[in-house]
């Protein structure tokens, strides 16, 4: 999944000479929390609702311009980067969104909401489905074998996830299109795989 397929392309932006109040009003009007500061299509910085808030109530001093309070050199991402790498950046730097730059030109913005939508689609979470959680038999090719068993028992796999609970215990979460799980569970266990739980 590429960033360019999930980013917002029609980005609301602001110029460096605008006031903090103008920036906040623009955010509220468009229900957004990140506002790239641009000169033409070139990104100069970024303002967020949280970093502007202290300046709204600073009594007794002139309201600053966006250029004075913006985040300089914000973390950005390339449109051809993977959504996974963008998610890691957001997690690592504890930020809510990433301007998307192509040769220094702002071409979009990717927020936590966009990343969540991408992962929801990837994992088929909103699709009517069932899930089998299992610990695979300890042998080479066990995952391929389990997937083959599921298919042969009438299951259509939507997504696969894994949680490592210890060095020896890995639980695989296999989401399938809504189906009767009983024959799938029976076949998996007869081949030595341990079904931990099912969500039907």
UniProtKB/TrEMBL annotation:
Which Gene3D superfamilies is this protein grouped with? Answer: CBS-domain
Q: Does the keyword Repeat apply?
A: yes
Task: Name the source's superkingdom.
Answer: Bacteria
Query: In what residue span(s) does the CBS domain sit?
Result: 7-63, 70-128
SMART domains, alphabetized: CBS
Keyword set, alphabetical order = CBS domain, Repeat
Taken from the record, one Pfam family name reads CBS
Q: What is this protein called?
A: CBS domain-containing protein
Q: Which organism is it from?
A: Dissulfurirhabdus thermomarina
């Amino acid at each position: 999944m590429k960033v360019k397929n999930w980013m917002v392309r029609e980005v609301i932006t602001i110029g460096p000479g605008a006031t903090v109040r103008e920036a906040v009003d623009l955010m509220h009007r468009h229900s957004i929390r990140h506002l790239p500061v641009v000169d033409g299509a070139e990104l100069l910085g970024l303002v967020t609702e949280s970093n502007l808030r202290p300046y709204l109530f600073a009594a007794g001093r002139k309201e600053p311009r966006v250029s004075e309070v913006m985040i300089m050199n914000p973390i950005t991402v390339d449109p051809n980067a993977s959504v996974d790498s963008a998610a890691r950046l957001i997690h690592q730097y504890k930020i809510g969104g990433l301007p998307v730059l192509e040769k220094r030109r702002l071409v979009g913005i990717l927020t936590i909401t966009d990343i969540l939508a991408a992962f929801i689609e990837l994992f088929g979470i909103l699709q009517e489905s069932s899930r089998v959680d299992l610990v695979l038999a300890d042998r080479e090719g066990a995952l391929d074998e389990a997937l083959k068993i599921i298919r042969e028992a009438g299951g259509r796999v939507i997504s696969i996830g894994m949680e490592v609970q210890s060095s020896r215990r890995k639980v695989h979460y296999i989401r399938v299109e809504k189906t009767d799980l009983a024959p799938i569970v029976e076949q998996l266990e007869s081949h030595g795989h341990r079904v931990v739980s099912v969500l039907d």
